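Let's do one together. I've listed all components of the complex below, 1563 residues spread over four lines.
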Amino acid sequence: MDFLHFSPETDFKLLLAVPLIPLIGYVVQVFFGRFLPRKGDWLLTGGMGVSMAIAVLMLAKVLHEGGGEHGGGGFFQLSSDAGLSWAWLYQSGKAAVSPLNLEVGILYDGLGAAMLAVVGVVSFFVHLFSIGYMKGDRRYHLFFANISLFSVAMIGLVLADSLLVLFIFWEIMGLMSYLLIGHFSHDQSTPFFQRWATWASKKAFLTTRVGDCCLLIGMMMFWQHYHTFEFVDLWRLANEDVARNGGEWPMWMTIAGLFIFGGTVGKSAQFPLHIWLPDAMAGPTPVSAMIHAATMVAAGVFLLGRTFPILSPEVLAVVTATGAFTALFAATIGVTAFDLKAVLAWSTISQLGFMVAAIGTGGIGLVAGLFHMVTHAFFKSCLFLSAGSVIHGCHHEQDMRKMGGLRTRMPLTFAAMGISTLAIAGIPLFSGFYSKDKIIQAAFTKTSLEFSGAAVFAAVALPIAAALTAFYMFRMMFMTFGGTYRGEVAEAHGHGHGHDEHDDHHDHELVHSEDGGIAPGHPGPLPVESSWPMTVSLLCLAALGFLGGKFWLADFDVLAHHAPWFVRLVSPETLYPGVELMNGYGHAITHEMVEHAEHTAHTLALVVSLLVAGLGIFGAWWFYGARKASPERVAAALGEVYRTVARKYYVDEFVNATVIRLTHLLAHVQRWFDENVVDGIVVGVGRANRSLGFLQAWFDRTVVDGLVNGTAAVTQLFGSLARLFQTGRIQQYVTFAVGGGLIAAAWLILA
Amino acid sequence: MGVEAYVAVSAALFALGVVCIIARRNILYVLMGIEMILNAANINFVAFNRFGGDGLDGRMFAIFTIILAAAEAAVALAIVLNVFHLFDSIKPSEVDLMRE
Amino acid sequence: MGTERAFYACLGLGTLAAAGWGTSTGGVEGLLFAVFATLTLGGGLVCLWERSVVRSAFALLATFGGVAGLFLLLGADFLAMAQILIYVGGILALILFGVMLSPPDMGERKLSRVGLGLAAVGGAFAWVGAKVAATVSWAQAPGPLAPPEQSHAREIGVGFLAADQYVVAFELAAVVLTVALVAAVYIARRKITDFEEPAETGGSA
Amino acid sequence: MDSTLLTWITFIPLIGTAVIMCLPQRALGAVKVVSLVATFIPLVLATVAYVGFDKTTEQMQLVANVPWISGLGVNYHVGVDGLSLPLVWLTTLLLFIGVPASFGIEKAGRAYYALLLLLEVGIVGVFVSLDYFLFYVYWEIMLLPMYFLIGIWGGPRREYAAIKFFLYTLAGSVLMLVALVALRLSSGTFSILEMVDMAQAGALTGANLPFGGVLLGMKFTTWVFWFLFVAFAIKVPVFPFHTWLPDAHVQAPTPISVILAGILLKLGGYGMLRACFPIVPDAFRTFAYALGVLGVISIIYGAFVALGQTDFKRMVAYSSVSHMGYVLLGFAALTEWGMSGAALQMFNHGTSSAALFLVVGVIYDRAHHRDLNGFGGLSQPMPVYWGLTTVAFFAALGLPGMAGFVSEALTLVGAYDSADPRFRILVLLSVIGIVITAGFLLWAMQRVFLGSLNEKYKDLPDINLREILCQAPLLFLCVALGIFPHFLLDWMEPSVRHLVGLLGGAG
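Okay, and this is what the predicted structure of the assembly comes out as:
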């Protein structure tokens, strides 16, 4: 198996090709896309396919080198070690030795390999899906270009070997999400979507940019101390620093770590910056699939994976607490949502909470969190694409109350979505089970070893969130595919009913835009199965979601007693080789204790996760499948509580009323200040000068001419004022010049 | 005759020029006043050059003053003619477009 | 016309007094100085006094001539020549043109204005001058001044053309003159309408 | 060995002016061709100078030094280093773009182009002169054409704007003149380089002046510093000397706005680097933090005021205030990164803001107003225009991959790394500016291009080829320098390092 050997000389170039191929495709598409046959969709889909193939090949190499039976020591490659990096800022000879120069290189390890493959696969299938889904769109070619660059950004982020490079791609990704979420803002045919998309894209960009700025500050703080952005150096230097400090993390590092986590909060939609993600579904569904699975939100978690060694225990506690809270918080909202995509969006936030909380617990949790990121990518992209297929079939209807009975009408979609739902709900044999189980195990382990508030909170909140997850996912399945079709059926495409109607009838409904209401669909013929590019993508992703668990485990041990390859490749030891992590448990806790705790927690977690999944599914069946009880009645009984949850705890309203209002108020106040005070001073000085001119004129006509006419009577003086008013200005100037000169002379003489 | 005599003449001529500008209400008198002031300055230049200075500096300055006076006179006359066309008057008191 | 006569009588008396003072303090040179100084200041006074612009202009001729004479006394023969040529021949001619092209306005002089202005400004200058004279110690040339050995015209010409002295200033003056004359022609040529709408100059040119 | 290259770059536009003045008023076509040629040749020559530049030394290059007014000790001393050469090149480029961008101007075209070329003489002259007197002369030369270009070809309130501009800059000039005279008296030379050497030797303290240079309890260097700083700060413009900028920008015709934002503002920053800080380094160090505070106020304040605008061009003008705040912050931090970032930011702002003003110009030419709320949905009738605008907007808000990011990141990181820990607070505050900048740009984009289409503008013609060609080089630079910043940084690095050393900062 010689071709599976990783040789830095050639393989880094091959890795470079992964982002470069779609990038070149993007450039070609932007300029020439509209002239290409089929508007160039084949070009980018094909390009992405090649990238995917390379990414998978590289993953195979990594597995062969470090994950298989031969390796075991992990896999870690830096292109700068092989002399393959690019001096970015300076290239002249003198500058090359300067610490100021930034070298851009590739960091390729187990995590990067897994993530690269995930991004490649999901991107490719999203491209393929889009061929069917976006057919007939006005800006078809640009859509493909943008989504391709979106993938490039994520690929670049995954391959980055320094914080700064990561940040660059991070920001580019933000831009592309802005453009893609706002895809419909140019579509004049659906005013609702247009307004919503415009607003949502701006919201997404600005909200995540708040997080970006935090990340930037965190980067600066680390740079200021270590003068490097390279991950490897940062890990080493920070941990050496802490070790020298006797295991105490300096205050600045905690603050910097919190700022870096701020980046994750923004991109990975953690509370309180989660508000952009539900609205991000204003974009086309394939975009949502990309954002929720492989790109945007994964980037934040990936960042945590990359910066884990420089986060102090205090930061990790905050991370755990934030993640756990987000998981629970979003899950409760997910239960109340009626918009098909909104359910998925809240479930994403919730799952992200799981990942973040897991990483915060450290050790096995780090592995579990990253593992969940990878498995989640497959089933969530599949869920979104299935939702897209459903919405496509139901004529852009997104309200689940207008669906139902699609099981027979769209069997392939149903199959794909069902598999993915089982996966996300945490049913054994499906991939989601393994990762979620591990997360709960990590939370329990942490609690048993270190009885801290954050850990306990995570240990309590996460299982509840898992139960809610199973509940609302199956609720969605029952509402969408079960029962009979509840949508309006019309032979011809009539004009849809306005969404105002929704608001009138259901005042507890999800408010996800300033316009309110769920995007209106329009009645059409009965739904039918989607075209082949869509269904093929769905089924492939569903297969990965199902088989994925096995694949990741690399053996058929359901309980996963043996460490699967992912754990071998992606573990604190192999991810950060040569770094003595200082943010783990204290010295008091030995390795054996950890092992023991993990083992104990494992069994417990297995029981708990199976239990909560079962509970959730049963609840969903009780309320929505069998309709033994009316959910509406429960909602009414809960009253104000339900309303609060359905309104997403009024976070949006709060932000609107405080941050946004305040900003605009500040802007207007400052504008007023600028125009009236700052400029007013300037104009005032000008006015004063002019007044001085009037004063001179007054002086001229009263004193100078008064001198002349002083002998005349006062009445005569007044009478002559009108005439004297016209005293020439040139002469007046001369008078004052001479007078001033004389006064100056007099002063000089007398002084 | 010492330098002070020349300076006195110069000062007197300067004063005459200033009064000419200020007191008369015809723009041509303004011009003539300016010429007087320039001449007063020239007397000073040459006198100081003669009595105290070395080299040519003072006389050179005088020459330049004369040159500038010539230029100024030409432009000023042209302006006067235009002002007359525009305002039908050559009283500087009525030429007030510079106010704003 | 009483004031007119009184004015000219005072002027004549002043001239005589000046001549006498000059002769008594500086001999022939003093006399010459007195004559030229009187010519200068008298010309200025008449210029200021006269109602007629034409007469004022001709009085200015006397001033310029007087200044030229003072230059001669100061040994600046080239300057004196330039003064006569440029001022008397050029500037005065220009002013006379201006006089002829503008309407006569005999009624604008006001005795009180001129008199009081003269009194105020002259008084102020006299006061300042007196103060200055009292405090400043004048630098005196050691001994009698030597007469200029060579022609000043030559000296000045060399001064102009020697690279390290006044070449730049000379060129600057040349440029200023050229620009001023062109500008003068340009301004004088413009029509009244040009002032109202500058945008339309293109068409009328 | 004197080089005449810079002299040619400076004075070829002057030849163009002369030729234009000789052409008949009606031959507007010929005038345009002459203008194009007279701006293109300097661009080529500047490119030649750029390529041939020795990147390994901080010494002045392409120096010419001949006596000019020997009586005063004034020399015609020109030369460039890594700080000035990119700006010279940018000047020639923007002027070359400014000519075709002006083709739409109907009124008195001949005089317009003549003044435009004269403006180039002044600007390039300031960038290349190494003699303070010469510097001042060029500084004044530049002022007059600008005054007329705004005052004659501007918008409805052009007189007001032009006079405001003129008075502001004149006030700055007067301050500079006073400082110049004081420096001349103290140092006995007009050469900037000699002054810098004297300052390094500690000889430029004004001790030979009356009162030992101490006036009203402030040292000579302090006076000189503040006089020069205010003179240049007006040009930058730094809060609170910025109020001429929105008026001048809004009233000026598009190409003039482009040049105003693209280059004239850089004169202030360049002036500080060349003719203020190194001459009085002690005073600079004393007041560095105050400058940093001013810079951050400019960043945040400019961004907020821009957010509050409804006039497209005014908004862009205030964004300039915000962006130039980074320049001041980078200078004040006194680190190599900060200084590099600030110098780079000057260049990048030159391209991105110029592009933004061209963007505004395009829409103004078509709709004849600039009210942000009066548009809507323009991406539909004008897709290409929208695309170009997006690039320009994202370049302006400092998106990575674009040039603005490199300079802003360098500036911020450099400032954070400053020896003075108080700068960290400033950096944290200036981050607010980043978010607000993104906010007002996106909000503007939403109001103009997205949303429902304003029926009035449903048939607006898309951007035409001439306008695209004007924009293209700027946008290309925005992107290219984001990916390959070393094409500027390599050139600047020795000079920046030298400068930081002169000012006494750490690496």
